[in-house]
Write a structure and sequence with these properties.
Length: about 180
């Protein structure tokens, strides 16, 4: 799915996106964020897919954003052992070395969450952020998708992608809500 197609699904912005100093944020992160993510939140506020999957805009306060990322990652750091269970599209499990966590080089970086507490992450293993895979985890099992956020969400909505960590019936609709968070 291309960004233009995604915009047609979501419709016009209902709220102004948060003003984000992308250069400052990326400088402080030490990472260039994926283009589709920047496009998404230059156009929209936070998004929620089928009242379940939240995709969060960066906070305009960069220090606060870095704290939010760290807070989101802390439970995963505590749960991860030396190995983690990586599952395939059929739910088959293989034990693999645990993923590093941001700010470790190539670490997992948070971009969203579900109502069940699952985390949506990038694996920042490549210098080219356009090649970062998406990792979905419930804290115990991890699942990998090789593609960007727009293609991931588009694939979920048309049921071309089934994430085995998400409920089987998700999504039950193609509803995408926009919401702003009060500062």
């Amino acid at each position: 799915m291309e960004f233009v197609e995604f915009e047609q699904l979501v419709g016009p912005a209902e709220y102004a996106p948060s003003p984000v100093d992308w250069n400052l944020l990326e400088s402080r992160l030490g990472l260039r964020l994926p283009r589709d993510y920047r496009q998404l939140f230059q156009r929209y506020p936070n998004l929620q897919i089928d009242k379940f999957l939240g995709i969060f805009a960066p906070n305009s306060d960069v220090d606060e954003q870095l704290r939010l990322i760290d807070d989101a990652m802390e439970p995963l750091r505590e749960l991860a052992g030396v190995q983690v269970a990586l599952i395939d599209d059929n739910g088959e499990e293989a034990m693999v070395p645990r993923f590093p966590f941001y700010p470790e080089p190539g670490g997992l970086l948070d971009w969203g969450a579900t109502e069940n507490g699952d985390r949506c992450l990038w694996l920042t293993e490549n210098e080219d952020s356009e090649k970062w895979p998406i990792i979905i985890t419930d804290g115990i099992q991890y699942w990998r998708y090789d593609g960007n956020i727009i293609s991931f969400v588009g694939g979920l909505l048309d049921r071309a992608i089934i994430c085995p960590i998400f409920p089987r019936r998700f999504p039950s609709s193609s509803r995408i809500d926009q919401f702003a968070v009060e500062a």
